[in-house]
Amino acid sequence: MLTIISTDAMWGQHIKVEKRNEHPFLVDHGRVAKSYDKAGMLKDSITISSHTGSASSINLFEMDTALILIDVNGMWYFVSKSSGKFINGFWGWEKDLPIYYIGTYTYDKGLNAYRFEKQVVSKESVYQQKDPSDYSGRFLGEERE
What we know:
about 140 residues, six-stranded antiparallel β-sheet
């Protein structure tokens, strides 16, 4: 697994997206989002969508008490700012985006990893692949210990 360039620890948490090599030749057949504290200790992780090698981006937004990762398939993943735990999630295809955009994780072929960068975002650039099939009946709910 390769660690990407991550966000700054503005909230006491680093959020990273890593590729999982589940396929012999596709770019990012699987991905994992991880939350680390300022000391670099892993707080929590969750498997995010398994795209078919398209190296899809995922966007990071901020709300009062949580950071939100929004995947191209419309899945929203919430990370508690205070605990660093993934606390909730749902499929929110074309739901209005949160006001505070922080950045986007995009695949960098030269690094063979995901890079965190600022982009201009819109609903059209965030919601690209309407496919909740992997997640329609899955997880998230209450904060995990």
